[in-house]
Design goal:
The protein contains 18 helices and eleven strands. A hairpin with a 2-residue loop joins strand 3 and strand 4. It folds into two domains: 250 residues, Rossmann fold, CATH 3.40.50.720; 154 residues, N-(1-d-carboxylethyl)-l-norvaline Dehydrogenase, domain 2, CATH 1.10.1040.10. Helix 10 packs across helix 16. 44% of the residues lie in helices and 13% in strands. The chain is α/β, with parallel strands linked by helices. The structure holds D-mannonic acid (CS2). The site of D-mannonic acid (CS2) has 10 residues, from helix 10 and helix 14.
């Protein structure tokens, strides 16, 4: 039997306690992968459990029909398995109504964005989904040529303006530095080129708050699905697996209504930057270093790499001595405690977080994870031994016979091959735009 609205769930499994059938969709989420299902959709489900209404989520996959095929036959329901060292808990999340595939049904996506009930369009499209060129501005040809977020949001915004509807909040939940401001600038660039008459309306009616999103969500495996089925008593092809920890810090700058996410654990703040910078440079910076250094040493999982007595001190130094000093902490933000907590999270043996999952898209991740820290120290005449060894490990990875999953894969492999790899990657005209210059 497959999970669905009629499944009788075991008492140990939390389920939605609001009437799903009557909730309007207030959110369109583009990029409905495992991360969204284990993070924003859970906060939204919690908000509706706590009494908020009409914040159903219409999920959108830009190209792949995989998630739609998993969730639509289940009426949008799926399981989140939270794995702590002490054991696993299951809950069924009801916030997602259904999933659209933009490449197959563009008009349905545009109609959802243009619906009067929609107030928020949110995004987890990964770093590369923003289609930035080397200088950080929008690669317009790519945005026009592919089923990109820009095409659907651009058309949806134009339809809203034409219908006299209110503006939207565009909520980026990806690991980019200043993700809201970055999305806004990219979206403006697209509108200026394709819908110039919408630009002024966009500026006055829409908002793009920045967010810091954090929860470790390994890719679900067949073994995970089998274990979940054994407890649930039903097959769930859309199940996701995650850790107990979850954090969401959101700049409180919305165009219209929003769920009361602050009642269910999110932090709504005036300035996200200190949280976002700490997360990118400490958590994600350490993650990418663990990936390349750990793979080089033959490890498969994050918990194995952090348990390696040669690797752990490099990662501790990266977080505490290299990344933390570059961050102007917010009042009450304790970066030393943050590093302690991250070491514990990385060591979680129940998560089985694969290093290759983190190693992908290095060209898109490394600038905000490593290079800003390196540049900060370079401007002060200092060097970063841990980050420099992480860079060496990335280059060794690019030279190895590991498959390279990265939009710049071929160029990276070619640049990394020769003796001048550092200059070809990070030099003045290098592949990776950077203020840091290798010594
Ligand atoms: C990871 C992130 O895959 C990666 O690059 O560093 O997905 C990380 O697990 C999340 O950002 C944690 O919040």
């Amino acid at each position: 039997m497959r999970l669905g609205p009629d499944t009788a769930l075991p008492a140990s499994v939390q389920a939605p306690d609001y009437d799903r059938a009557v909730q309007a969709a207030g959110i369109v989420h583009i990029g409905i992968g495992a991360f969204h299902r284990a993070h924003q959709a859970v906060y939204t489900d919690d908000a509706m459990n706590a009494g908020d209404r009409d914040w159903g989520i219409i999920g959108v996959s830009l190209r792949s029909g995989g998630v739609a095929a998993q969730l639509n036959p289940q009426g949008g329901l799926y399981t989140v398995a939270t794995r702590r060292a002490a054991g696993t808990r299951l809950r069924v999340v009801g916030a997602v109504r259904h999933v659209l595939v933009a490449a197959d049904d563009a008009q349905a996506v545009i109609d959802a964005i243009a619906a009067p009930t929609t107030h928020i369009v949110s995004f987890t499209v990964t770093e590369k989904g923003y289609l930035r060129g080397a200088d950080g501005t929008l690669d317009l040809a790519a945005a026009r040529g592919a089923p990109s977020l820009y095409r659907f949001v651009g058309a949806g915004l134009a339809a809203r303006k034409a219908a006299g509807l209110g503006g939207l909040t565009l909520l980026s939940c990806d690991n980019l530095a200043g993700n809201g401001a970055a999305l806004k600038a990219l979206m403006r660039q697209y509108l200026a080129a394709e819908y110039s008459d919408v630009l002024g309306w966009f500026d006055s009616e829409c908002r793009a708050p920045s967010t810091m999103i954090d929860r470790i969500v390994p890719a679900t495996t067949d073994a995970d699905r089998a274990a979940i089925e054994a407890t649930l008593g039903a097959r769930d092809d859309g199940a996701v697996v995650t850790e107990g920890f979850s954090q969401w810090v959101i700049e409180d700058d919305f165009a219209g209504p929003r769920p009361r996410w602050e009642n269910v654990g999110a932090e709504l703040v005036a300035d996200v930057a200190p949280y976002e910078t700490a997360k990118l440079r400490m958590l994600n910076g350490a993650h990418s270093a663990l990936a390349y250094i750990g793979l080089g040493k033959g490890h498969d999982y994050v918990h194995q790499a952090i348990a390696d007595a040669d690797v752990r001190p490099v990662i501790e130094r990266l977080m505490r001595a290299e990344a933390a000093p570059t961050i102007a902490a917010a009042p009450g933000q304790d970066l030393a405690a943050y590093a302690d907590a991250l070491l514990d999270r990385f060591a979680n043996p129940a998560l089985n977080h694969r290093l290759v999952q983190i190693a992908m898209d290095g060209s898109q991740k490394i600038p905000q994870r490593w290079l800003e820290t390196l540049a900060w120290h370079q401007q002060r005449g200092a060097r970063c031994s841990s980050l420099e060894s992480a860079i060496a490990a990335w280059i060794a990875f690019l030279r190895s016979d590991h498959p390279i999953d990265d939009p710049l894969a071929d160029k990276l492999r070619e640049a990394a091959a020769g003796p001048d790899a550092m200059a070809k990657l990070f030099g003045e005209d290098g592949l990776i735009a950077s203020e840091w210059r290798p010594a």
